[in-house]
Structure formats: structure tokens, C-alpha cells
Design goal:
The structure is a homodimer of 161-residue chains. By secondary structure, chain A is α/β, with parallel strands linked by helices. Chain A has five helices and six strands. In chain A, a hairpin with a 2-residue loop joins strand 2 and strand 3. At the A-B interface, helix 3 and helix 4 of A face helix 3 and helix 4 of B.
Chain lengths: 161, 161
């Protein structure tokens, strides 16, 4: 997805879900993420840990890197991030460092999440920047995609949703 | 630093500190990290968030990516990681995903750390892989380097040590 491509703001959840489906088609964990600013799409990405041999190549980390490159800045002040699954501690940390304004996520991840589950990173006194958090977009689609994927692999990284 | 360069195992802490000093000389937060396997140096890196316009470009994330690329694998099973400062939540998460065997860190980071400070990520029931943790290598040198750097910038990301 090219940078600064404009789109209807209300298509953002679907674009994140499309990135998750594309990740599944590549044999990756089906998670997709999008960064927008003032209704414009800045970057979109899905998981690529296997393809890239990179355990940090989660959708959120990739989309933050892409958005920073597109905007030529280290911090994404005023930008919002949609991701189909509740971020893990690594990604929740990256979202905080990037100064994301609003975080929208799809399915909750009771086992691996770090926002409304687990360590609840943004509720900690040591967290310097916490985005506004909006859970539950396209929750059923996002969770079903993950369940189908991991059912085939007999692995269970997501418990709830 | 090239991959698979052999070195005396006990030089690893000094190499991490040299990477931290090199980061400071580039105007980056002075933190350095090294990945070794069976006494061989696999990768070494310092922070490059400013240079790369990438808030995820902490020393630990960079050195994990470099080591995975050098070894051609997504997980660094049997590898150890030295870093001059206690990892933040993002990096502690990346270290867990990478399946690092032993984590050695220099100075504690009471404000930003997530290993022996803050959310103590590896003590959480939701943590799938926790490395063995050894704090305190070259602690005084690592902490003094950070203090000097942030004193100049009137910023204080590290409180203790």
C-alpha cells in the first residue's frame, strides 16, 4: 500500500482486515494493521515474521516503521493505528514510543495481549505515552480469522474473543 | 560488526559498551547490545532511532534482527544477549519472541525497564518464554554513559543505577 494514499476513513477497519487475510494467505499469523492521519491512509501492513525471519516483524511494528519512513519522522504524533488483534507487550511498547494518538484493535488477546489484558501497559505509572484505546472493531471477523488459522496449526495464541 | 566473528566470550560486555559509546557519538541514546552463541559473536548494535527515524530501532531490536538475518532463522534458540541498559517492554517482548536463552543487562532502568522494574514481563503468567536474567555487568560504566548523555539533554529516562 503506498503512503499518503487517501481513502474513506471508515474503510480503515476493512483495510486492516484485508491485511490480516493477506498475511494468512502468506502463511503468517493473520494480523493486519493500518496507520492513518486525518482520514488519510499512511501505511498498511500484515505480519511477516516467517517471511522476513524476524520475530519483531509484527503488523504493528512494520506499519509504524513504514509510516515513520513515509512521513520522515520518528514520532507519529496525531496518527491513529488500527490493528485486528490486541497488541502484545512488544507492539504496545512500540505504539507508545511512536506517540500514536488513538489505538483501535479488533479482537482481545487474553493470553498474549498487553493493553486490556496481561500487563495492561498503558495503565502503568511507568508508561510515558498512552494512546486512547478503542477495542472491538470487526471483532468477530478478526477473531474468526485467527481461530481458523491456529486451528489448522494446533497452536493457540488467542484464547478469548 | 560482521556475523559469526569469533571473539573471547569475556569481551562481550565491553563490546556492548563500545556499541553504546558509538551510539552516543552519533547523538543517539547510548545503549549497546550484542548477541552471542557458544562464545561466538553473532551481531552487535547500538540505538539508531534518530538516524533511522524509527522508534523501534532500539539496540536490542536491531541486534535481534541482525542476528536472525545472520543465522537465517526467526528464533535465536541457544543465543545470549548482552545489553547495557535494562530492556523496555518493547525490547523485553522482542527478546522473549526471539527465544533468547540468557539476558545480561548493565544498568537497571527503574523508570523505563520491564525486566526487574516496571511490569516485570518475564514474571507474568502470560509470558511464553522467559530468558535467564543476569543484571549488573559493567553497571557503573553503562549508567554513567547514560547519565552524561541525558544530563546534556535535560531529559531523564533512567532514574536508578
Amino acid at each position: 500500500m503506498t503512503s499518503a494514499e487517501t481513502h474513506k476513513a471508515d474503510r480503515t477497519p476493512e483495510i486492516a482486515l484485508e491485511e490480516a487475510r493477506a498475511a494468512a494467505a502468506r502463511g503468517e499469523a493473520p494480523i493486519g494493521a493500518v496507520v492513518t492521519k486525518d482520514g488519510a491512509l499512511i501505511a498498511a501492513a500484515g505480519n511477516r515474521t516467517r517471511e522476513m525471519n524476524d520475530p519483531t516483524a509484527h503488523a504493528e511494528v512494520l506499519v509504524i516503521r513504514m509510516a515513520c519512513e513515509a512521513l520522515g519522522q520518528e514520532r507519529l504524533v496525531g496518527c491513529d493505528l488500527h490493528v485486528t488483534l490486541e497488541p502484545c507487550p512488544m507492539c504496545a511498547g512500540a505504539i507508545s514510543f511512536a506517540r500514536i494518538r488513538r489505538l483501535y484493535f479488533g479482537a482481545e488477546d487474553a493470553k498474549g495481549g498487553a493493553v486490556t489484558s496481561g500487563v495492561r501497559l498503558y495503565d502503568q505509572p511507568t508508561c510515558h505515552h498512552a494512546p486512547e484505546v478503542y477495542p472491538g472493531f470487526l471483532e468477530r471477523d478478526s477473531a474468526e480469522l485467527l481461530r481458523a488459522f491456529f486451528r489448522e496449526r494446533r497452536d493457540v495464541p488467542i484464547s478469548g474473543a
